[in-house]
Amino acid sequence: MSEIVVRSRGLTKHFGGVCALDGIDIEVPRGSLYALVGANGAGKTTFFSVVAGFLRPTAGEVEVLGQRAPEGGVLRGRLGMLPQDASFLAGVPVLEQLEFCAQLQGLSAAAAKHAAMQALDAVGLGDVAQRNPRALSHGMLKRVALCQAFLGNPELVFLDEPTAGLDPETARRVRDLVRAWRGHRTVVISSHNLAELQDLCSHVAILHRGRIITAGTMDAILASGCVFRCVLDEPADAALLDALRALAQVAKVSVLDRELTIEGTNGTDRRAAAQAILECLLALQQPPRSFSEGASLERRFLEAVGGKSDGLGGT
Protein backbone atom coordinates (compact mmCIF):
# COMPACT_ATOMS: atom_id res chain seq x y z
CA MET A 1 0.00 0.00 0.00
CA SER A 2 1.19 3.54 -0.76
CA GLU A 3 3.00 5.41 2.00
CA ILE A 4 0.87 8.46 1.15
CA VAL A 5 -2.56 8.06 2.78
CA VAL A 6 -4.09 11.36 1.61
CA ARG A 7 -3.25 12.86 -1.77
CA SER A 8 -5.09 15.71 -3.45
CA ARG A 9 -4.46 17.35 -6.81
CA GLY A 10 -6.09 20.64 -7.78
CA LEU A 11 -8.77 20.11 -5.12
CA THR A 12 -11.33 22.91 -5.44
CA LYS A 13 -14.61 23.58 -3.68
CA HIS A 14 -17.05 26.42 -4.38
CA PHE A 15 -20.07 27.41 -2.31
CA GLY A 16 -21.98 29.57 -4.74
CA GLY A 17 -19.68 32.46 -5.56
CA VAL A 18 -17.29 31.68 -2.68
CA CYS A 19 -14.15 29.64 -3.37
CA ALA A 20 -13.40 27.75 -0.14
CA LEU A 21 -10.64 25.56 -1.62
CA ASP A 22 -8.60 26.77 -4.57
CA GLY A 23 -6.49 24.05 -6.20
CA ILE A 24 -5.20 22.24 -3.11
CA ASP A 25 -2.22 19.90 -3.66
CA ILE A 26 -1.24 17.97 -0.55
CA GLU A 27 0.31 14.63 0.47
CA VAL A 28 -0.03 13.20 3.97
CA PRO A 29 2.49 10.43 4.81
CA ARG A 30 1.40 7.29 6.62
CA GLY A 31 1.98 7.41 10.37
CA SER A 32 2.46 11.18 10.50
CA LEU A 33 0.89 13.73 12.83
CA TYR A 34 0.05 16.34 10.22
CA ALA A 35 -0.85 19.93 11.18
CA LEU A 36 -3.21 21.96 9.01
CA VAL A 37 -2.78 25.63 9.94
CA GLY A 38 -4.86 28.59 8.86
CA ALA A 39 -6.95 31.50 10.09
CA ASN A 40 -10.72 31.25 10.47
CA GLY A 41 -12.24 30.84 7.01
CA ALA A 42 -9.01 29.57 5.43
CA GLY A 43 -10.72 26.34 4.31
CA LYS A 44 -9.52 23.82 6.92
CA THR A 45 -12.93 22.37 7.84
CA THR A 46 -14.00 22.32 4.19
CA PHE A 47 -10.85 20.38 3.34
CA PHE A 48 -11.61 17.85 6.08
CA SER A 49 -15.19 17.44 4.84
CA VAL A 50 -14.21 16.93 1.20
CA VAL A 51 -11.43 14.46 2.03
CA ALA A 52 -13.74 12.49 4.33
CA GLY A 53 -16.35 12.26 1.57
CA PHE A 54 -18.97 14.46 3.27
CA LEU A 55 -18.76 17.04 0.48
CA ARG A 56 -18.09 16.58 -3.21
CA PRO A 57 -15.31 18.73 -4.72
CA THR A 58 -16.13 21.20 -7.45
CA ALA A 59 -12.95 20.25 -9.31
CA GLY A 60 -9.74 18.30 -8.82
CA GLU A 61 -9.30 14.88 -7.26
CA VAL A 62 -8.52 13.31 -3.92
CA GLU A 63 -7.29 9.86 -2.95
CA VAL A 64 -7.71 8.59 0.61
CA LEU A 65 -6.25 5.28 1.79
CA GLY A 66 -5.96 4.18 -1.82
CA GLN A 67 -9.57 5.10 -2.67
CA ARG A 68 -10.33 7.84 -5.18
CA ALA A 69 -13.20 10.24 -4.42
CA PRO A 70 -14.29 8.24 -1.33
CA GLU A 71 -17.97 8.41 -0.44
CA GLY A 72 -20.87 6.19 0.50
CA GLY A 73 -19.15 4.49 3.44
CA VAL A 74 -16.32 2.95 1.39
CA LEU A 75 -13.86 3.94 4.16
CA ARG A 76 -16.09 2.79 7.03
CA GLY A 77 -13.93 1.63 9.93
CA ARG A 78 -10.76 3.03 8.33
CA LEU A 79 -11.37 6.75 8.86
CA GLY A 80 -12.37 8.66 12.00
CA MET A 81 -13.20 12.32 12.53
CA LEU A 82 -13.61 14.76 15.40
CA PRO A 83 -15.63 17.78 14.23
CA GLN A 84 -14.87 21.04 16.01
CA ASP A 85 -18.35 21.17 17.58
CA ALA A 86 -19.09 17.47 18.09
CA SER A 87 -22.26 16.97 20.15
CA PHE A 88 -24.18 14.15 21.84
CA LEU A 89 -27.85 13.41 22.39
CA ALA A 90 -29.28 14.40 25.75
CA GLY A 91 -30.84 11.59 27.77
CA VAL A 92 -28.89 8.78 26.10
CA PRO A 93 -25.98 7.37 28.14
CA VAL A 94 -22.49 8.12 26.83
CA LEU A 95 -21.60 4.44 26.41
CA GLU A 96 -24.71 3.72 24.36
CA GLN A 97 -23.94 6.57 21.96
CA LEU A 98 -20.33 5.47 21.53
CA GLU A 99 -21.50 1.90 20.91
CA PHE A 100 -23.79 3.15 18.16
CA CYS A 101 -20.93 5.11 16.56
CA ALA A 102 -18.73 2.00 16.71
CA GLN A 103 -21.39 -0.10 15.00
CA LEU A 104 -21.59 2.51 12.24
CA GLN A 105 -17.86 1.86 11.80
CA GLY A 106 -18.66 -1.79 11.11
CA LEU A 107 -18.16 -3.39 14.53
CA SER A 108 -20.51 -6.04 15.92
CA ALA A 109 -22.62 -5.14 18.97
CA ALA A 110 -20.25 -6.97 21.34
CA ALA A 111 -17.12 -5.54 19.73
CA ALA A 112 -18.68 -2.05 19.73
CA LYS A 113 -19.33 -2.17 23.48
CA HIS A 114 -15.78 -3.37 24.16
CA ALA A 115 -14.28 -0.68 21.89
CA ALA A 116 -16.39 2.06 23.50
CA MET A 117 -15.29 1.09 27.01
CA GLN A 118 -11.66 0.85 25.91
CA ALA A 119 -11.85 4.32 24.40
CA LEU A 120 -13.41 5.81 27.54
CA ASP A 121 -10.77 4.19 29.73
CA ALA A 122 -8.02 5.54 27.47
CA VAL A 123 -9.13 9.14 28.14
CA GLY A 124 -9.76 8.53 31.85
CA LEU A 125 -13.56 8.53 31.63
CA GLY A 126 -14.46 4.91 32.25
CA ASP A 127 -16.65 5.96 35.20
CA VAL A 128 -18.97 8.16 33.10
CA ALA A 129 -20.12 5.38 30.74
CA GLN A 130 -23.71 5.36 32.02
CA ARG A 131 -24.02 9.09 32.57
CA ASN A 132 -26.15 11.54 30.63
CA PRO A 133 -24.00 13.82 28.42
CA ARG A 134 -25.75 16.80 30.01
CA ALA A 135 -24.12 15.86 33.32
CA LEU A 136 -20.60 16.13 31.86
CA SER A 137 -18.34 19.16 31.78
CA HIS A 138 -17.15 20.68 28.51
CA GLY A 139 -13.74 19.07 28.96
CA MET A 140 -15.28 15.65 29.57
CA LEU A 141 -17.47 15.96 26.48
CA LYS A 142 -14.42 16.91 24.42
CA ARG A 143 -12.66 13.75 25.55
CA VAL A 144 -15.75 11.65 24.83
CA ALA A 145 -15.84 13.16 21.33
CA LEU A 146 -12.19 12.22 20.91
CA CYS A 147 -13.14 8.63 21.78
CA GLN A 148 -15.71 8.73 18.98
CA ALA A 149 -13.00 9.69 16.47
CA PHE A 150 -10.89 6.63 17.26
CA LEU A 151 -13.55 3.94 17.58
CA GLY A 152 -12.90 0.94 15.38
CA ASN A 153 -9.13 1.46 15.26
CA PRO A 154 -9.15 3.70 12.14
CA GLU A 155 -6.00 4.13 10.07
CA LEU A 156 -6.64 7.83 9.43
CA VAL A 157 -8.14 10.41 11.80
CA PHE A 158 -9.05 14.07 11.33
CA LEU A 159 -9.15 16.24 14.46
CA ASP A 160 -10.65 19.73 14.17
CA GLU A 161 -9.56 21.88 17.16
CA PRO A 162 -9.16 18.91 19.56
CA THR A 163 -8.07 21.01 22.57
CA ALA A 164 -10.08 24.20 21.97
CA GLY A 165 -11.75 25.38 25.18
CA LEU A 166 -10.10 22.76 27.40
CA ASP A 167 -8.35 23.51 30.68
CA PRO A 168 -4.53 23.04 30.60
CA GLU A 169 -4.54 19.65 32.31
CA THR A 170 -7.22 18.19 30.04
CA ALA A 171 -5.49 19.64 26.97
CA ARG A 172 -2.25 17.98 28.06
CA ARG A 173 -4.01 14.63 28.41
CA VAL A 174 -5.45 14.95 24.91
CA ARG A 175 -2.01 15.82 23.49
CA ASP A 176 -0.44 12.85 25.25
CA LEU A 177 -3.15 10.58 23.86
CA VAL A 178 -2.62 11.82 20.30
CA ARG A 179 1.18 11.69 20.64
CA ALA A 180 0.96 8.03 21.65
CA TRP A 181 -0.63 7.27 18.26
CA ARG A 182 2.35 8.59 16.29
CA GLY A 183 3.46 5.92 13.84
CA HIS A 184 0.42 3.74 14.56
CA ARG A 185 -2.20 5.96 12.96
CA THR A 186 -2.12 8.92 10.62
CA VAL A 187 -3.63 11.98 12.31
CA VAL A 188 -4.40 15.29 10.60
CA ILE A 189 -4.94 18.09 13.13
CA SER A 190 -6.37 21.56 12.70
CA SER A 191 -5.79 24.03 15.53
CA HIS A 192 -5.13 27.69 16.24
CA ASN A 193 -2.70 26.71 19.01
CA LEU A 194 0.47 26.86 16.93
CA ALA A 195 2.85 26.18 19.82
CA GLU A 196 0.90 22.98 20.52
CA LEU A 197 1.10 21.90 16.88
CA GLN A 198 4.81 22.67 16.70
CA ASP A 199 5.45 20.46 19.70
CA LEU A 200 3.13 17.67 18.55
CA CYS A 201 3.30 17.33 14.78
CA SER A 202 5.84 15.93 12.32
CA HIS A 203 4.44 17.70 9.24
CA VAL A 204 2.59 20.95 8.55
CA ALA A 205 0.70 22.72 5.77
CA ILE A 206 -0.21 26.41 5.93
CA LEU A 207 -3.57 27.18 4.34
CA HIS A 208 -4.50 30.75 3.42
CA ARG A 209 -7.68 31.83 1.62
CA GLY A 210 -8.24 28.36 0.26
CA ARG A 211 -4.70 27.81 -0.97
CA ILE A 212 -1.69 25.91 0.39
CA ILE A 213 1.07 28.48 0.94
CA THR A 214 3.72 26.01 2.07
CA ALA A 215 3.84 22.38 3.22
CA GLY A 216 6.45 19.86 4.36
CA THR A 217 8.05 18.41 7.46
CA MET A 218 7.89 20.59 10.55
CA ASP A 219 11.69 20.72 10.73
CA ALA A 220 11.99 21.85 7.11
CA ILE A 221 9.31 24.55 7.46
CA LEU A 222 10.93 25.96 10.60
CA ALA A 223 14.51 25.72 9.34
CA SER A 224 16.31 28.79 8.04
CA GLY A 225 19.76 30.00 7.14
CA CYS A 226 20.72 31.01 10.66
CA VAL A 227 17.84 31.61 13.07
CA PHE A 228 17.62 30.66 16.74
CA ARG A 229 14.57 30.38 18.98
CA CYS A 230 15.14 31.11 22.65
CA VAL A 231 12.56 30.87 25.45
CA LEU A 232 13.32 32.63 28.74
CA ASP A 233 11.82 32.28 32.21
CA GLU A 234 11.13 36.03 32.31
CA PRO A 235 10.54 38.65 29.58
CA ALA A 236 13.81 40.00 28.20
CA ASP A 237 14.79 43.41 29.53
CA ALA A 238 16.28 46.25 27.47
CA ALA A 239 19.83 45.51 28.62
CA LEU A 240 19.69 41.94 27.35
CA LEU A 241 18.16 42.93 24.02
CA ASP A 242 20.79 45.64 23.51
CA ALA A 243 23.57 43.17 24.33
CA LEU A 244 22.26 40.58 21.88
CA ARG A 245 21.81 43.13 19.10
CA ALA A 246 25.37 44.35 19.63
CA LEU A 247 26.83 40.91 18.84
CA ALA A 248 28.69 40.75 15.53
CA GLN A 249 26.96 37.44 14.75
CA VAL A 250 23.42 38.84 15.23
CA ALA A 251 21.47 40.77 12.60
CA LYS A 252 18.05 40.99 14.26
CA VAL A 253 16.26 40.12 17.50
CA SER A 254 12.46 39.80 17.58
CA VAL A 255 10.51 39.52 20.84
CA LEU A 256 7.26 37.68 21.54
CA ASP A 257 6.63 37.72 25.29
CA ARG A 258 9.32 35.36 26.68
CA GLU A 259 10.33 34.03 23.28
CA LEU A 260 13.21 35.54 21.29
CA THR A 261 13.82 34.91 17.62
CA ILE A 262 17.43 35.76 16.83
CA GLU A 263 18.60 36.01 13.22
CA GLY A 264 22.29 35.62 12.43
CA THR A 265 24.18 37.89 10.05
CA ASN A 266 24.77 36.69 6.49
CA GLY A 267 27.61 34.21 6.24
CA THR A 268 28.03 33.76 9.98
CA ASP A 269 28.90 30.31 11.30
CA ARG A 270 25.88 28.77 13.05
CA ARG A 271 27.91 27.18 15.82
CA ALA A 272 29.82 30.39 16.51
CA ALA A 273 26.59 32.39 16.51
CA ALA A 274 24.88 29.97 18.91
CA GLN A 275 27.87 30.06 21.26
CA ALA A 276 28.01 33.86 21.26
CA ILE A 277 24.28 34.14 21.97
CA LEU A 278 24.37 31.62 24.82
CA GLU A 279 27.41 33.28 26.37
CA CYS A 280 25.62 36.62 26.25
CA LEU A 281 22.52 35.18 27.93
CA LEU A 282 24.56 33.55 30.69
CA ALA A 283 26.68 36.67 31.24
CA LEU A 284 23.50 38.67 31.92
CA GLN A 285 22.13 35.89 34.14
CA GLN A 286 19.32 34.95 31.76
CA PRO A 287 19.90 31.22 31.16
CA PRO A 288 17.33 30.07 28.55
CA ARG A 289 14.60 27.60 29.36
CA SER A 290 15.04 26.27 25.82
CA PHE A 291 17.32 27.12 22.92
CA SER A 292 16.89 25.69 19.43
CA GLU A 293 17.76 26.40 15.84
CA GLY A 294 14.89 27.46 13.60
CA ALA A 295 11.95 29.84 13.94
CA SER A 296 8.63 29.22 15.68
CA LEU A 297 5.62 27.97 13.73
CA GLU A 298 3.79 31.18 14.58
CA ARG A 299 6.58 33.23 12.99
CA ARG A 300 6.55 31.08 9.84
CA PHE A 301 2.75 31.28 9.66
CA LEU A 302 2.72 35.06 9.94
CA GLU A 303 5.51 35.36 7.36
CA ALA A 304 3.55 33.14 4.98
CA VAL A 305 0.22 34.97 5.24
CA GLY A 306 1.62 38.47 5.68
CA GLY A 307 0.18 38.91 9.18
CA LYS A 308 1.55 40.48 12.32
CA SER A 309 1.90 39.08 15.81
CA ASP A 310 -0.06 40.80 18.58
CA GLY A 311 2.56 39.65 21.10
CA LEU A 312 0.21 37.22 22.81
CA GLY A 313 1.08 34.08 20.91
CA GLY A 314 -2.26 33.74 19.10
CA THR A 315 -3.13 33.83 15.40
How would you characterize this protein structure?
32% of the residues lie in helices and 27% in strands. It is of the alpha/beta class. The chain folds into 2 domains: 4-221, P-loop containing nucleotide triphosphate hydrolases (Rossmann fold), CATH 3.40.50.300; 225-294, Protein-tyrosine phosphatase receptor IA-2 ectodomain (Alpha-Beta Plaits). The chain has a 6-stranded mixed sheet, sandwiched between helices. The chain has a 4-stranded antiparallel sheet with strand order 2-1-4-5, with helices on one face. Strands 12-13-11-14 form a 4-stranded antiparallel sheet, with helices on one face. Strand 7 (156-160), helix 5 and strand 8 (186-190) form a beta-alpha-beta unit. Helix 2 crosses helix 3 and helix 3 (109-122) packs across helix 4 (138-150). The radius of gyration is 22 Å and the shape is globular.
Query: In the CATH hierarchy, what is the architecture of the largest domain at level 2?
Result: 3-Layer(aba) Sandwich
CATH topology of the largest domain: Rossmann fold
What is the overall number of helices?
Answer: 10
Total separate domains: 2
Terminal CA distance = 37 Å
Estimate what percentage of residues fall within beta strands.
Answer: 25-35%
Q: Major sheet, described briefly?
A: 6 strands, mixed
